[in-house]
Specification:
With 583 residues, this protein is of the alpha/beta class. Among the domains are: 2-91, Arginyl tRNA synthetase N-terminal domain (Gyrase A, domain 2, 2-Layer Sandwich), CATH 3.30.1360; 170-269, no CATH class; 458-575, Isoleucyl-tRNA Synthetase, Domain 1. Helix content is 52%, strand content 12%. It has helices at 2-14, 20-24, 47-55, 59-69, 93-106, 136-154, 170-186, 201-209, 220-224, 236-251, 253-277, 288-293, 296-306, 341-354, 369-381, 418-425, 427-434, 447-451, 458-478, 485-490, 498-519, 523-543, 551-575, and strands at 32-34, 43-45, 76-82, 86-91, 121-124, 159-165, 284-287, 310-313, 316-319, 330-333, 359-365, 389-394, 397-401, 404-405, 443-446. It has a five-stranded parallel β-sheet, with helices on both faces. A four-stranded antiparallel β-sheet has the order 1-2-4-3. Strand 8 (310-313) and strand 9 form a beta hairpin. The chain starts with a helix and ends in an 8-residue tail after the last helix. 41% of the residues are buried. It binds one RNA strand of 77 nucleotides through helix 3, strand 9, strand 10, helix 15 and helix 19.
RNA sequence: GCCCCGGUAGCUCAGUCGGAUAGAGCACCAGAUUCCUAAUCUGGGGGUCAGAGGUUCGAAUCCUCUCCGGGGCGCCA
């Protein structure tokens, strides 16, 4: 709808050749906006003020000139010049009626833009290490990422959702060892579990179900002999490192490797199932092990070497990150010959780009912000643009139960898992609450509020609007009446109540909200919009009876609320929240 | 020390590319409610947009500095 007004302004300016220079460096789409105050009409343009300086004209006079050149349109009732030089547009009722018809015609597609071919977007999110179940922080990443993916698709972009599985490296060895040790305990062995091991109960569960043949006959003394002391007397990293070496030696690389793979695969599958239950589906699970196996990390290092981006120092191989704006050079191969995590990440991001994705979006925890510059540097050094990579940083989640803040200690295994949260408040409330706030705002997640079945709870309030509309149609049937949509369309001009006009205005904003939320990577705009829309509907419901005796007025009102139901359902679908017909 | 994010009503937060009188929910106060769902509704009070300077027709928004809170600055991942 905004586009209609913007087009009128553009046409008017085209008829004013004297202004063409000034117009040239102005993005006209940005000069039209919704008014905040109905007293200013439906849309306002600040184009005259924006052009006034370069055109060296008084803004109000300029606004007058532009208004005179506006083409006639049956969608605009009148225009006014107001304030310092705003042009206010008052749209005709027909403009809103057309929009209602568009909603009904397009249904689930209403608000979506035409599919574009470019840029192809690769959206990577969650990517939690497969060392344990997802916790509430990951839930925010999952909800935000899934919603952003939906928003970008609604904006017409081709999107692939990807989960990068950090299934290589030392922490996988620590996982494998933790499982071995828990299994040995289950067989009656007794020893101090390493401080740096994974201590959660899920490790015992894995130990109970996987194939541990190969470590059956090992006695603990052989494993712990000669291993450096654990904390507090010694160093926990050295201790667990010694245990890993001992385990590989005594069990054999094959047996240990098998346990490690089974353990991580068990956790990875659990994560995938957890996310699927949460409505978060990935197109691809990209394994770091595969990256290494396929030689892509070495290949990336060769390219960097050829481009003279690497050098040796202190026995390690360094990448010249400072040449690309990072604050220091970074190690890619350690003195011990082991490649760093950063080396695989260069290779991974290069690979994303090589697979034809022109725009890469990573959703990362705010604690990873220091990492962004070097990944960008890597991408630049590999011959792509640093700006090809966009990073959205997520701030942390703090759980509340009413006023009480829930302590969460990952170390002690006391963290709340995503699964526990979902079970307590339900998927809908969880998906909704997680995207309620801007990603760069800390999120206070109130479990009590999320569970409440009253209008205090925004997700409830919005779903209730949807269910209420369905209920009205059930009432209609009970009264043995039917809705005639065509008659309703013809009768839309009967909808002249303030509440009806406000509801129509709110509905017509939906495509603009979607576009804005996608462009700004800001799902909270959609959340706020849906709450506003639900509020407009509930207010209307409370003020007027829909099922009236007059056939045409009744059909028209039912047409309006049917359109409302469609928009609420579409918006909730983007967030991943159900739109129930009954509650 | 350097880097990132935040600071807007009592609380939790929106505020688009600079736009007209600063927005919502909760809480609070006052009313209403024989009615398609009380699983409520209507109205009201409440602001030094952290502070100071700058840019301009116009600043919560952009720039500079300061203060406060969170996070990050590994041959960890």
């Amino acid at each position: 709808m905004k586009a209609i007004v913007a087009q009128l302004v553009e046409d008017a300016l085209a008829a004013l050749p004297d202004l063409s220079d000034a117009v040239a460096n102005l993005d006209l789409a940005t000069t039209v906006e919704r008014t905040r105050d109905a007293g200013h009409g439906d849309f306002a343009s600040n184009v005259a003020m924006r052009l006034a300086r370069t055109a060296r004209q008084n803004p109000r006079e300029l606004a007058n000139t532009i208004t005179d050149c506006l083409p006639d349109s049956n969608l605009v009732d009148k225009t006014e010049i107001a304030g310092p030089g705003f042009i206010n547009f008052y749209l005709s009722p027909a403009a809103f009626h057309t929009e209602i018809e568009t909603i009904l015609d397009q249904g689930g597609d209403y608000g979506r833009q035409a599919a574009k071919d470019h840029p192809r977007i690769l959206l990577e999110f969650v990517s939690a290490n497969p060392t344990g179940p997802l916790h509430v922080g990951h839930g925010r990443h999952a909800s935000f990422g899934a919603t952003l993916g939906n928003l970008l698709e609604a904006a017409g972009y081709p999107v692939q959702r990807e989960y990068y599985v950090n299934d290589a490296g030392r922490q996988m060895d620590i996982l494998g060892l933790s499982v071995c040790l828990r299994w040995m305990e289950s067989q009656g062995a007794s020893f101090a579990f390493p401080r740096a091991g994974y201590r959660g109960d899920y490790i015992r569960d894995i130990a109970a179900e996987i194939d541990t043949s190969g470590i059956d006959s090992v006695d603990t003394s052989a494993l712990f002999e000669g291993v450096p002391a654990d904390e507090p007397d010694g160093d926990k990293e050295a201790h667990i490192g010694g245990l890993i070496d001992a385990a590989k030696r005594t069990f054999g690389d094959d047996a240990f490797g098998r346990i490690r793979q089974q353990s991580l695969e068990s956790i990875r599958q659990d994560i995938e199932m957890d996310l699927a239950e949460f409505g978060v589906i990935f197109d691809r699970w990209y394994s770091e092990q595969d990256l290494e196996k396929n030689g892509r990390i070495d290949a990336a290092l060769v390219i960097l070497e050829k481009r003279n981006m690497l050098y040796q120092k202190d026995g390690a191989t360094w990448f010249r990150a400072t040449d690309f704006g990072d604050e220091k050079d970074r190690v890619v191969v350690r003195e011990n010959g082991v490649k760093t995590y950063f080396a695989s990440d260069i290779a991974y991001h290069f690979d994303k780009r090589e697979r034809g994705f022109e725009h890469l979006i990573d959703i990362l925890g705010a604690d990873h912000h220091g990492y962004v510059a070097r990944v960008r540097a890597g991408l630049s050094a590999m011959g792509y643009e640093a700006t090809d990579l966009e990073v959205e940083l997520m701030q942390f989640v703090v759980l509340f139960r009413g006023k009480e803040k829930l302590a969460m200690s990952t170390r002690a295994g006391e963290f709340v898992t995503l699964r526990q949260l979902r079970e307590e408040v339900g998927n809908d409330a969880a998906r909704f609450f997680y995207v309620m706030r801007s990603n760069d705002q800390h999120l206070d997640f109130d479990l009590e509020l999320a569970k409440r079945r009253s209008t205090d709870n925004p997700v409830y309030y919005i779903q209730y609007a949807h269910a209420r509309i369905a209920s009205v149609f059930r009432q209609l049937a009970e009264k043995t009446l039917t809705w005639d949509p065509n008659n309703g369309r013809r009768g839309l001009s009967l909808l002249t109540e303030t509440h009806e006009k406000e509801l129509m205005t709110a509905l017509s904003r939906y495509p603009e909200v979607l576009e804005l939320a996608a462009a700004n990577r800001a799902p909270q705009h959609l959340v706020h919009y849906l709450r506003d829309l639900a509020n407009e509907f509930h207010t209307y419901y409370n003020a007027h009876v829909f099922i009236v005796d007059d056939d045409t007025l009744r059909d028209a009102r039912l047409t309006l609320i049917a359109a409302t139901r469609t928009v609420i359902a579409n918006g909730l679908a983007i967030i991943g929240v159900s739109a129930p017909d009954r509650m």
